[in-house]
Amino acid sequence: MPRTRGRAPAGGRADALSPEIVVGAAVALLDERGERGLTFRLLAERLNTGAGALYWHVANKDELVALAADQVLGQALAAVPRPENGTGLRALAVAVFDGLDRHPWAASHVTAPASLPNGLRLFDRIGTLVARTGLPAERHFAVATAVFYYVTGVSAQIIAPAVTVGATTDRASFLARTAERWGRLDPAAYPFLTGATAALRDHDDRDQFLAGLDLLLDGLSASGRSTAADPRPPT
Amino acid sequence: MPRTRGRAPAGGRADALSPEIVVGAAVALLDERGERGLTFRLLAERLNTGAGALYWHVANKDELVALAADQVLGQALAAVPRPENGTGLRALAVAVFDGLDRHPWAASHVTAPASLPNGLRLFDRIGTLVARTGLPAERHFAVATAVFYYVTGVSAQIIAPAVTVGATTDRASFLARTAERWGRLDPAAYPFLTGATAALRDHDDRDQFLAGLDLLLDGLSASGRSTAADPRPPT
DNA sequence: ACATACCTGGAACGGCGTTCCATACTCTTA
DNA sequence: TAAGAGTATGGAACGCCGTTCCAGGTATGT
């Protein structure tokens, strides 16, 4: 890719490309065909140009996918309700999860430490909300990082596999088959799994995300209560 | 790949391949060159055979990488200390993190729901330890899943980016550059990040994993205390 | 009209995952 | 011992991919 990416001062062709257009088309293609279906040739075809032209606007495929994922994250952040009461962190996390769930390929590309605009915005909003909880200041960064890691990492774990699986079969029958396989395991070697097949069959991914998130947030308020900086120390 | 993969009843050549040998060589190659460096041609060359022969033992590259990651997970599980007191979950999680940290490419390939042997073993051990905490039985599955997601998802978030970054520059200078970029952001738009550059520069990834894990486990014991099934209800 | 900088798009390169298949090896059966 | 079957090999070939290269087009500034 050439050094500069700025547009010509004033003009340019009417049908000119831009990084935004290329990334937008990439998001559409990723939504339709998944990560393996995104190809510079196919993308160029949709944009009525050649593959080489895309490299003027985007360094390589890694950057293209990263930018596409950051755009998805931006849409998710735009959907976050105003943080009114004390539930800001939870609402933010849920909005990100739901946003990524609509574009499953993106989940595994939102990485830390954040470098792209919306990743930075997400981390900053988490940090700002953490700073309001009354936790001692020296713990803000570590806690914010933990929440960021949870939201991005666990979302990726939950959402990403669905891409591979969902293409072939629907979720219910996949869970049923998995549960059946668990049930056939040796109970001596797998005492927990063999008894958990019903729970596996009935579980909901989004609820799992929320359950873990609430554990984390409970731990946050619990540890906040037991610190010296707390305005209302126990007894 | 052909239908069957069983070895001949008794014999075979002295230099015969096997799925174990192929996966073992793949692990070595992944350790040396990372995921992009693993190639069927290169792998075949190391095993003194042709690329086509590998497909007799392994269905495709996805399966090969998944099996390699599961082998790494197996090594990590073998290193877990005996779960004596109440710290079993923490020790298990730490062992998995450290094991994956030694093979960074593997972190993002340990997925849920687990299907390969060591993924199943990990989930079962987490579930067994959760069942011992005194939590009501109907919450065991959800909590075990949350811990599993945390361990695998957050490990992947922390460890995987280091592959891309570490190849070019060392960690300290990467953090320094990132911190400097955060410092140049607009404080009005990024109030938290602009004040967190020092914390970013000094943070330790493993400590972050532990900090979040402890939050989660604190939440676990806190929510365990407040449930109806608890033998000692609050006041 | 000319020079310049930006941008395009098609051809070409090297490498990849995967398939195919002729061949070889070993054990079983006769 | 000879033949057959099943198992495993390895090299050639296929189609596709990311990426590079570059000759040309298109606008602006002089």
Automatic annotation (TrEMBL), chains A, B:
It comes from the Bacteria. InterPro entries: Homeodomain-like_sf, HTH-type_TetR-like_transc_reg, HTH_TetR, Repressor_TetR_C, Tet_transcr_reg_TetR, Tet_transcr_reg_TetR-rel_C_sf. GO terms for molecular function: DNA-binding transcription factor activity; transcription cis-regulatory region binding. Pfam families: TetR_C_1 (PF02909), TetR_N (PF00440). Gene3D superfamilies: Homeodomain-like, Tetracycline Repressor, domain 2. Residues 39-58 bind DNA. One of its GO terms (biological process) is negative regulation of DNA-templated transcription. Residues 16-76 form the HTH tetR-type domain. Keywords: DNA-binding, Repressor, Transcription, Transcription regulation. SUPFAM superfamilies: Homeodomain-like, Tetracyclin repressor-like, C-terminal domain. PANTHER family: HTH-TYPE TRANSCRIPTIONAL REGULATOR RUTR, TRANSCRIPTIONAL REGULATORY PROTEIN. This is Transcriptional regulator, TetR family. It comes from Actinacidiphila yanglinensis.
